[in-house]
Amino acid sequence: MENLIRVAVDAMGGDYAPAEAVKGAVAAVKEKENVEVLLVGKQEVIEKELSVCSYPKERIRVVNASQVIETGEPPVAAIRGKKDSSIVVGMKMVKQQEADAFVSAGSSGAILVGGTTIVGRIRGVERAPLAPLIPTKKGVSLLIDCGANVDARASHLVQFAKMGSIYMEHVVGVKKPRVGIVNIGVEEEKGNALVKETYPLLRECKDINFIGSIEAREIPAGAADVIVTEAFVGNVILKLYEGLGATLLSKVKEGLMSSLRSKIGALLIKPALKATLKSFDASQYGGAPLLGLRGLVVKCHGNSRETEFKNSIIQCISFKEQGINEKIGENLKVSNEEKKEG
Amino acid sequence: MENLIRVAVDAMGGDYAPAEAVKGAVAAVKEKENVEVLLVGKQEVIEKELSVCSYPKERIRVVNASQVIETGEPPVAAIRGKKDSSIVVGMKMVKQQEADAFVSAGSSGAILVGGTTIVGRIRGVERAPLAPLIPTKKGVSLLIDCGANVDARASHLVQFAKMGSIYMEHVVGVKKPRVGIVNIGVEEEKGNALVKETYPLLRECKDINFIGSIEAREIPAGAADVIVTEAFVGNVILKLYEGLGATLLSKVKEGLMSSLRSKIGALLIKPALKATLKSFDASQYGGAPLLGLRGLVVKCHGNSRETEFKNSIIQCISFKEQGINEKIGENLKVSNEEKKEG
């Protein structure tokens, strides 16, 4: 079949490797006709998992990689030292255009380092941001950057805003996505040095829908579609989102179990509550893309299950079909030319 | 009565001024014998509120102030221009030692500016941090700094750690409070330039119980008692805490109202759920202290009610009785001398 999109999947990454990655691959090729999955990792182990699944055989291939990068390993040393690891092998396939994208639930550090050093950035991109989708009251917002490169410059944040807008518009399907910069107040004169420098640059961007500063309080309400911030703050927001959600829900559960009356009530509300809270679960959108690379790299949660792997693979299809990288390259090329002229 | 602790309260600040501030003052003098409250603001208005309350008359005094600083006013201009505002008059009383503390639910900006310019910092304190208590699974943690002065230096953060430890130990009553620095990973080599510079300085502090980096995910679980961070990140954490809590609870409510079955369940669980979630409400601890000033300034939420005002006033009593400022002054004096010797 022509125009088959090839997604390499790290079968060895994540808490439930290889089972859940393999199941996600199987589910993806069953759901979408135009995708081929290349499962990267220990061949024997993967084939054993596959042997109990039924799926269109011609669209899942196993690519052997004998090594595994563990979560605790120092990323740079791991990427350099483990040439036959599933992460290095999968990323090399993207670099050599044997795959369009790479999906992994493995070591975040290794994925971020490998993305830049193996896959490489699109010409004109200064830094490749990690941009997870986070759930909001209205749906979902893109939080960009949550990567490992802290102490960003204003020019990085401007590129994040542009890349994030393109992604939200063409992959998630939000028309004219509202771009906000995380700040400690909404007035333009507020903020730290980085925000004050970035704010006027964003206001000047004609190709994004910049709505100004947003306070962290407004993020869960869905006040912006693209939430621009440097990686330290982005990381704090992402982690606090996870931690606070878990703590609040455990508090609610504790309350439900505190008396006989409330236990009976809990049985009655369970299905409705489960359905509502599911809408606040980001895994339905798949993992976080690492944007601005020559190819796509998607980082899934360490605790990803079949659904997140499947949706991450499907995300890669939209990404490729919509020509996101071509759009990013074109946009930044124009911006850089304008800068030279200006 | 001797040893009466005098707390000036801004009767004009907050969404429910003057009623809730006045009620809080009345509740405080009824609960505690050793406090005198000075209600600062428009005399006539305050006296009208007081006229319907019963309380020990000799322990509430009204101090007239004809002006009010509104929330939206530029703080520096407001503090300079409105010499007869409740905030300026109340803070001057602290400066002139006519009051031991000042409590206000008014403009955050004006309170922060006034704290430093009118009340003034303790000798040796480089910056006065705003340190709210945030609820956790285990109780409460001090988040220091959430003020308006961003782009902090490492030496500021070290002082925040020390002041925060003294406060948590002697006002909140946590023995050997665990001090953590907000970071994007737990390894020492992780972090932005500021965190990398501060980490070894905190490790060297003999008078605090430094437990290293904490990720934002761990904050709601109560992983540290004193959470050290610069004000931009602190502000993001504080605001996201509020915003995400509100959004998640509204999601839960939406789930409860979605079917007849769940509505009946909701009636049964309501009392238990309310009690559990109340334990996750920080207002029982009162407002946020602005530490390191010659006197105490406490910033309450704009939407504070009687209970938060009352608890803020009671907080001032512990603060004074425990000699927190003397302890801070002594601690920083010793640290500065050690620095000179070293």
Q: What is this entry, summarized?
A:
Two copies of one chain form a homodimer. With 342 residues, chain A is of the alpha/beta class.
Descriptive account of the structure:
2 copies of one chain form a homodimer. Chain A has 342 residues and is an alpha/beta fold. Chain A has 11 helices and 11 strands. In chain A, the strands form 2 sheets. Chain A has a 6-stranded mixed beta sheet with strand order 3-2-1-4-11-10, sandwiched between helices. A 5-stranded mixed beta sheet of chain A has the order 5-6-9-7-8, sandwiched between helices. In chain A, β2, α2 and β3 form a beta-alpha-beta unit. In chain A, α4 packs parallel to α5. Chain A is globular, with a radius of gyration of 21 Å. The termini of chain A are far apart. The model of chain A has no long low-confidence stretch (mean pLDDT 92). Chains A and B meet through α8 and α9 of A and α8 and α9 of B.
